[in-house]
Amino acid sequence: MILNEVKQSILAIFVPMKRYHLVLLFLIAMLAACHPTSRDARQTAHDALENARILLDSGNKADAMRLFKEAERYGLSANDPLTVAHARLNIAHCLGYYADKEDVVSLLKAAAEGFGEDYADRADALRELGDFYQFHRAYDTAEMVLQQAWAYAEQSGSLEAKRTVSSAFYAMYFNAREYEKSGDYLRRFLQMSMPDVDDRTMMYYYDGMGNIFYEMGNSDSTAYYYGKLEELVNQAESDKDIWFYFYPLAHQAKSRGDFEKAFDYYCRYDIGNNHSKIEEKRNNLIAMSQKYDKAVMQNELNEKIIWKQRVIILISGIAALVLLAFLISQIRLARNRKREAEINAELFHFKQQSQALAQKDAEHEQIQKDYADRLSEALDKEQQTMMLLDIYLNNSKKANLLNDLERSVFGDKDHWKAMLAVVEEKYPSLWETLGQKCPDLDEDEKKSFILSHFKVSRQEEADYLGTTVNMVDKLRGRVRKKMAERQ
């Protein structure tokens, strides 16, 4: 029964919706047409990420940060965790080491978690976090984070990831002045680069070992590794990508007293540094010009998605208002119908009760009429008898005969008692009941009250009570007053 009532309530609300189904279908179709697809959002996120990297390489960090945040937002809407993770990693990189510590740490942790089973990128994010901690001299925390990065690098099986983490360990221990551990990780870095090691890797190794032994105060080892570095640098065909090694070599030559060579290395370092900056700007301009069309397309797609979202918000608001108004109207209609049904049911029951009461009243009136007719007949007989008695009472010669007749008719009762006896045959215990309900009426008033219901005249009432018409009028006045006070 309960399920049926629930079903009927639901149908009462939604069945009238058939007349509005075309409007609802139109609104739904508009929402579906304007809603950006996950493919659009994913493509927008990838383009924003790529363009942001170009801007970052060109030194435009503010615009790069904006595009990285857009890549994060669109990646979240497209449910693309890898793009979101890359965006967060680059946002942390843009913030740099001097940004708010909690912001950078939360971004890098979220990026590492977002990479999921992409263990190589996960190791890279944790390596970046370890570098951040070691920059702020939190070496214990940095060591713990880099150990986690090393575990993920081993899981990935990527040799490059292991080399990157080893290099981070080398730098962290070097800054923490734990030179032996720093040297161990630098040797591990070189070992993982074998057997396809190139001159650039060896330069990195010799420079690092020279720096370690220089800090340890081992001049012989320092001279040996810087010497190896100097051989490789001089064998290089160009100073383009190795100019930064000239600075430690110049410092080493100066410490040996070879100022001419030190000056030459300093000059080559400055030239390479300036050339590197110029070349970097030129390459960035070329890359940006090559990616210009793609950036324009990406901006157009962004604008299209923004307009779609605005249309969605507008149509969604209209649809929500229409549906809300419709539901409210249907709920009100259902309530009105329910109330109408309740009123009809109450009215039906009331009519039935009224009919039953009317029938009972008719039966009661019929009974009263029967009693009144029978009582009137009895009163008529008694009245005729009393009239005969009065006639005979006026004739003193027949007084004895009248007394005998009165005793034969009424016994020892007077006129009123005879009248009351007749009344009590029709209405048993009437006198006692009237005394209980109207205790403030005296006997004459009670008699007058009873006789007033049988429509007898004032003279007849006076005859029954054995008094005058004036006294009857006073009695009736007192009865009406007392009955009015009781109401």
Provide key terms for this protein.
single chain, 487 residues, Serine Threonine Protein Phosphatase 5, Tetratricopeptide repeat, Arc Repressor Mutant, subunit A, 84% helix, rod-shaped
Report the total helices: 21
CATH class designation of the largest domain: Mainly Alpha
Radius of gyration: 59 Å
Q: Summarize the helix and strand pattern as letters.
A: HHHHHHHHHHHHHHHHHHHHH
Averaging pLDDT over every residue, what do you get? 76
Binned strand content: under 5%
Query: Got a strand count?
Result: 0
The gist of it:
The protein has 487 residues and is mainly α.
Can you tell me about this structure?
There is one protein chain. The protein is an all-alpha fold. It folds into 2 domains: 33-302, Alpha Horseshoe (Serine Threonine Protein Phosphatase 5, Tetratricopeptide repeat); 413-486, Arc Repressor Mutant, subunit A, CATH 1.10.10. The protein contains 21 helices and no strands. The chain has helices spanning 2-14, 21-34, 38-57, 61-77, 81-95, 101-114, 119-135, 139-156, 159-175, 179-193, 199-216, 219-235, 246-256, 259-290, 292-394, 399-410, 415-426, 430-437, 443-452, 458-465, 469-486. Helix 7 runs parallel beside helix 9, helix 11 packs antiparallel against helix 12 (219-235) and helix 12 (219-235) crosses helix 13. The longest helix is centred in the last third of the chain and has 103 residues, at 292-394. 24% of the residues are buried. The model is unreliable at 13-19 and 31-36 (pLDDT under 50).
Topology, element by element:
Elements (H helix, E strand, L loop, with lengths): L1 H13 L6 H14 L3 H20 L3 H17 L3 H15 L5 H14 L4 H17 L3 H18 L2 H17 L3 H15 L5 H18 L2 H17 L10 H11 L2 H32 L1 H103 L4 H12 L4 H12 L3 H8 L5 H10 L5 H8 L3 H18 L1
Helix pairs in contact: 1-15, 2-15, 3-4, 3-5, 3-14, 3-15, 4-5, 5-6, 6-7, 7-8, 7-9, 8-9, 9-10, 10-11, 11-12, 12-13, 13-14, 15-16, 15-17, 19-21, 20-21
